[in-house]
Amino acid sequence: MNILLTGATGYIGQRLLPVLIKEGHNVCCCVRDARRLDVSKYPKDQISVIETNFLDFNSLGDIPMKIDVAYYLIHSMSASTRNFEEMESQCAKNFNVRLSLTDVKQVIYLGGIANAETLSPHLSSRKSIENILRSRCYNLTTIRAGIIVGSGSASFEIIRDLVEKLPIMVAPRWLDTRSQPIAIRNVIQFLYGVAGKKWTFNNTYDVGGPEVLTYKQMLLTYSKIRKLNRLIFTLPVMTPKLSSYWLYFVTSTTYKLAINLVDSMKVEVVCKKNDLAEKLNISLISYQKAIELAFDKIAQQNVLSSWTDALSAKTIEPGIQSFMEVPTYGCLKDEKELSINNESTVFENIMGIGGKNGWYYADFLWEIRGFIDKLVGGVGLRRGRKNQNTVEAGESLDFWRVIYASEAKRRLLLYAEMKLPGEAWLEFKIEQNKLYQTATFRPRGIWGRAYWYLLLPIHKVMFQGMIKNITKSKDGLLSV
Prior knowledge:
This protein is of the alpha/beta class. It has 2 domains: about 1-300, NAD(P)-binding Rossmann-like Domain (Rossmann fold); about 310-475, START domain (Alpha-D-Glucose-1,6-Bisphosphate, Chain A, domain 4, 2-Layer Sandwich). Helix content is about 35%, strand content about 20%. It has 13 helices and 19 strands. The chain has helices at about 10-20, 85-100, 120-135, 155-165, 185-195, 215-225, 240-250, 255-265, 275-280, 285-300, 345-350, 365-375, 445-470; strands at about 1-5, 25-30, 45-50, 70, 105-110, 140-145, 150, 170, 180, 180-185, 205, 215, 230-235, 330-340, 395, 400-405, 410-415, 420-430, 435-445. Strand 15 (about 395) and strand 16 (about 400-405) form a beta hairpin. It is globular, with a radius of gyration of 23 Å.
């Protein structure tokens, strides 16, 4: 089949794409930035990539006419605390109009379970998108899911942060809300399973795992799997705003996402019964098994996608290509170079920077900077990295975004997503047995320059220690 895959660089899209390719389908991927999708691992005759922005109808002209099935996986939940409903609505309307001009037979939409009488703005938006996508020009199949559990999923990472970091939790009362979590593997099976099935046309299906659990039960089950003793107390006095701050500071989530999540977590998300799993011969995975599978992927350094792959900084929205060329005019720099003996080992260290490996020198200073970033509404250091030994363009790396990563050219370029009075790049490059490390800062006004010069002594020590330790073997790395 000819398949159109929107949201191909998102958490679900990156998991679904290899399945579609493996089954022999021709896939056209819609992305905002083509550089963020590595197609080299797929057969060239089965995949194509077009750059689209569904908020801009004029950018949709390259969508092909010959489409059998289209997946609508566009989501704006982490984009804004105020207008994500309007953004999602506009995207869906533009998609609807453009697809009506093609010969598409089926559109598959992944929405949220919306059976409660009162819905959160997020779930209400998901339901309204479903109504917008209903068209006389094609058949709509809607898959509604609640909490998705898998390596790199926002739900899994939030649960992981809470349980791993807090031996005692004083939590909001929404922890008593019931939900029906589903493993990411089952979600992908459902999304692929309904493709081309005429009996699913113009039908809506709730999908969930075999258990209905409260969020508190999910946390305690996780703690049991990890063999951690945890105590959880719920307080009725925590307002949604306080709950959002609590989630934001304790976990790796952004504040925008925390607000939308808290609103949704107050709503019960339990499936209406259907026989879709039986008809598609899908065995539902238990919550405990889903957690274990997630840790298997993490241990194997094989996390296919992460919720942090979504661009969190508005300045990145034009695409990572816009930040490939590091500016020079009006910029302040810290430049260092060091002769090296083993380029391969040094570059391996470079590619492993951040996350659990830290920044090779004065990690406590990086952690303080991450905490300060959280205080002012930034992303902080807790995002970590998807895989510890490899990075690709577009991925997050602590409070940086990977702009360019090439083993062949021995170069790693990062762009800062922390809160700054300006813009910052950090570049590592190896040429002719020399390591070049350059921190570039383009200040915004007088406060930007004051920020740079105030931290200049600290930066000098940190960056000097970092480049020295990067050049050491893994067994001999130093840290302060």
